[in-house]
Write a structure and sequence with these properties.
Layout lengths: L2 H13 L5 E5 L4 E5 L3 E6 L2 E5 L25 E4 L4 E4 L15 E2 L4 E7 L2 E6 L4 E6 L6 E2 L4 E5 L1
Antiparallel strand pairs: 1-2, 3-4, 5-12, 6-8, 6-11, 7-10, 8-9, 10-12
Length: 151
């Protein structure tokens, strides 16, 4: 089989909405082309499947159930109220707003989220002890993404 023929098959799979896999086997060769579906987590409770732009990778079968996220039994989370860049302190030279073991109340500032060059101080909105910081300084976070675990 010529390279141009293989490219046509890849383009066919890529352009198709329903076709996700092609297996072609002859005496002297075997070709398997798969279009992968990417799982995107929009919030801890919601899962979306998005078709990628590149073929030839492993596919999760359409009939396979996506497991539900485990229910968090111990503690609560402080979630991102917006999309942005997470900063644990007001400046690189400053101490972090909170560290593991700190007590917070509803009005305690726990971090800053930067969105469109605006720096937004984020309050805990719950009371308790910080038991885990779930994101790294400078990391992009999504709306609803857990930032801290609180007990």
């Amino acid at each position: 089989m010529k390279f141009e023929d293989i490219k046509k098959l890849v383009d066919l799979i890529d352009a198709s909405k329903n076709l996700t896999e092609l297996n072609l086997e002859q005496d002297d060769y075997k070709i398997v082309i798969k279009k992968e579906k990417e799982i995107v987590h929009a919030s801890p409770q919601t899962v979306y499947e998005v078709a990628p732009t590149s073929p030839a990778q492993t596919v999760t079968p359409a009939n396979q159930q996506i497991p539900e996220l485990p229910v968090q039994e111990e503690g609560k989370t402080i979630n991102a109220p917006m999309v942005g860049t997470f900063y644990k302190s007001p400046s690189p030279e400053s101490a972090p707003y909170v560290v593991v073991g700190d007590q917070v109340n509803a009005d305690s500032t726990v971090c800053i989220l930067e969105a469109m060059k605006l720096f937004n101080e984020i309050q805990a909105e719950i009371s308790g002890e910080i038991i885990e910081i779930l994101v790294e300084d400078g990391q992009m976070v999504e709306y609803g993404q857990p930032l801290f675990k609180v007990k």
